Q: What sequence folds into this?
């Protein structure tokens, strides 16, 4: 029983960490789009995006290989220009941001419906 509880706690921690990584990357991407998609990102921002994108586009690579903003931005640029990769980091981030917005709209509708049912 203790092993199951410990494993569940580990999975919950991992899930929270993954959600945080996705949220940070989405926030950076939204700022990036609002700024008119400049040629580069701040070091912290490029690493935040890469932390989310790297497992999707290059799962064999490790994030520690891109320990500076310059290296992280170079890898993001490489994803955007390689001809054999059809998904770029910007496309992947846009997809995530859209899914996040759809989820929020759905959750908002669900909450309103629940409140209406409780009040009626």
A:
């Amino acid at each position: 029983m203790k092993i199951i509880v410990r494993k569940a706690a580990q999975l919950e921690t991992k899930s929270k960490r993954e959600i945080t990584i996705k949220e940070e990357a989405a926030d950076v991407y939204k700022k990036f789009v609002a700024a008119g998609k400049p040629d580069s990102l701040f070091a912290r921002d490029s690493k935040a995006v890469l932390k989310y994108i790297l497992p999707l586009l290059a799962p064999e690579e490790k994030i520690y290989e891109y320990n500076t903003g310059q290296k992280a931005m170079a890898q993001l640029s490489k994803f955007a220009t390689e001809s054999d990769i059809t998904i770029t980091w910007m496309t992947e981030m846009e997809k995530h941001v859209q899914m996040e917005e759809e989820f929020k709209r759905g959750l908002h509708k669900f909450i309103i419906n629940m409140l209406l049912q409780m009040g009626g």
About this structure: Residues 20 and 75 are 21 Å apart (CA to CA). The two ends are 43 Å apart (CA to CA). The chain has one domain: 2-119.
